[in-house]
Write a structure and sequence with these properties.
Two copies of one chain form a homodimer. By secondary structure, chain A is of the alpha/beta class. The first copy, chain A, is 44% helix and 16% strand. The first copy, chain A, contains twelve helices and eight strands. The first copy, chain A, has helices at residues 16-29, 44-48, 59-63, 69-72, 88-96, 104-110, 129-137, 149-168, 188-200, 214-218, 226-229, 234-248; strands spanning 3-7, 34-38, 74-76, 79-82, 118-122, 140-146, 174-181, 205-206. The first copy, chain A, has an eight-stranded mixed beta sheet, with helices on both faces. In chain A, helix 1 packs across helix 12 (234-248) and helix 6 (104-110) packs parallel to helix 7. The radius of gyration of chain A is 17 Å and the shape is globular. Chain A starts with a strand and ends with a helix. The interface between A and B is large, with 38 and 39 residues. The structure holds adenosine-5'-triphosphate (ATP) (2 copies) and magnesium ion (2 copies).
């Protein structure tokens, strides 16, 4: 039975997509079979993994019940990708009117997770129905956190949402931990915010922190993650170490 | 009649909130009367402007039709702030079932805009019903863009949404332009992406670019924008220059 991990944070731009892509690639490099699911209508993960624009069918058809995950799979550098497109925004409106709307992704993944060691779900920057589907389908949630004040604020709201999901739709959901991303060790702000996180929230902070590096921002669009684009960079090494720690976390 | 400007981009973390706060402060410094509206359930702008957590009533009550903008106003360092709270996420579900759902903010602002020279609306990182309300209430949209590949991808989708809003709910909506934020002049990536934007989209890029600076990330939570926190920093000067250009743009 594969480990299904939602990567979520309603704060925008904290490296959710980058983490799913790089962590997925690092787990595949270690020999694991990995599926990454793009649950964001912006389809950043699909773009970063080199999938052509507006794939059809995509996660939109899966969330509307018109296709299975197997119908939409792409293969990209050792990863299976369930791509998304802007149409997925339309599924949000459709889902809100549906009974059992929180369980659509959980049901769609049921037949698939057996075949993978890891399924990583890239959530959009909101706590809406798509993220709720991601949290309901997953057994674990990984929270990328940029060590800055504005991103710290939303952590409490996110942990409350996780508690709600655990009591209403998914009693097995656990918080795997937070990953500090876009970390700049040269400034005091980063260290101060991490200290605040440790004081005010009861959350495990996974090591290592992922350093900020322009090489990471260069890799999307070529279909490759930072692991292939700049294999010996500190960010690539950090994602490899994170993958090793995550595997040991069962 | 005040200028109502929506600051929108569904890509997360591109400095929408920071731009509304800093630009609003810069316009107020030049003697303009300014209202900033927080239309994001994450309430980042409210936090950055020093409003206490979970203000009640807030934009949630305004979007539910239970309060007016005047009922919820706070004053912060020369700016009027219409704050938000996480409850606003509940208004999204409520609005979707309502006829005329796109016009709620436009109607709520009608009595208010007369009193201000500028009304700046901070939109959430999505193209959902709250952002559609922001685009329908505004006459202009300002698009913060981080010069990176993943953020470039969404620009086409956003401009299509603006075209839809113009043909369905708000024929007066104009694109004021894009503001390049979090710009790091030391890397080639930033310059390359800006060149791509100019090639592939017919959009005015407002000058100056806003430089990346840790001082900006330090200021939220103290209630002050970068203009007060580090008044002579390059980022503060850039926002002042942007304010001058925006005023000249009518
Ligand atoms: N370690 C890093 N160093 C430098 N840049 C990074 C790093 N991680 C991510 N980025 C860049 O930061 C930006 C935001 O990352 P990303 O898009 O993965 O965040 P996100 O949380 O998925 O955003 P959204 O909320 O829009 O879904 C991207 O341009 C990405 O390339
Ligand atoms: N010029 C800058 N230099 C350095 N940091 C910046 C700058 N502008 C914004 N930031 C920081 O970048 C992060 C993202 O900015 P901000 O929250 O304003 O973006 P946003 O687009 O409003 O995000 P969201 O999509 O979650 O609403 C914040 O931590 C902010 O403090
Ligand atoms: Mg993303
Ligand atoms: Mg914001």
């Amino acid at each position: 039975m594969g480990r299904v991990i939602a990567v979520a944070n309603q704060k925008g731009g904290v490296a959710k997509t980058t983490t799913v892509h790089a962590l997925g690639a690092a787990l595949a490099e270690r020999g694991a079979s990995v599926l990454v699911v793009d649950l964001d209508p912006q389809a950043s993960l699909s773009f970063a993994a080199g999938v052509e624009d507006e794939p059809e069918p995509s996660m939109h058809e899966v969330m509307m019940g018109r296709a299975s995950i197997d119908d939409i799979l792409y293969e990209s550098h050792g990863l299976d990708v369930a791509p998304s497109s802007i149409d997925l925004a339309g599924a949000e409106v459709h889902l809100l009117a549906k009974t059992g709307r929180e369980y659509v992704l959980q049901r769609a993944l049921r037949a698939t997770t057996e075949r993978y060691d890891f399924v990583l779900i890239d959530c959009p920057p909101s706590l809406g129905i798509l993220t709720i589907n991601g949290l309901t389908a997953a057994r674990e949630v990984l929270i990328p956190l940029q060590a800055e004040l504005l991103t710290l604020r939303g952590l409490g709201q996110l942990l409350e949402t996780v508690t709600d999901v655990r009591s209403f739709t998914n009693p097995e959901l656990e918080v795997a931990g937070a990953v500090i991303t876009l970390f700049d060790s040269r400034t005091r702000l980063g260290r101060d915010v991490v200290a605040r996180i440790r004081e005010s929230h009861d959350i495990r902070i996974l090591e290592p922190f992922i350093p900020k590096s322009v090489k990471v921002a260069e890799s999307p669009g070529r279909g490759i993650s930072i692991l292939d684009h700049a294999s010996s960079s500190r960010a690539a090494m950090a994602y490899r170490e994170l993958a090793a720690h995550l595997e040991a976390l069962t």
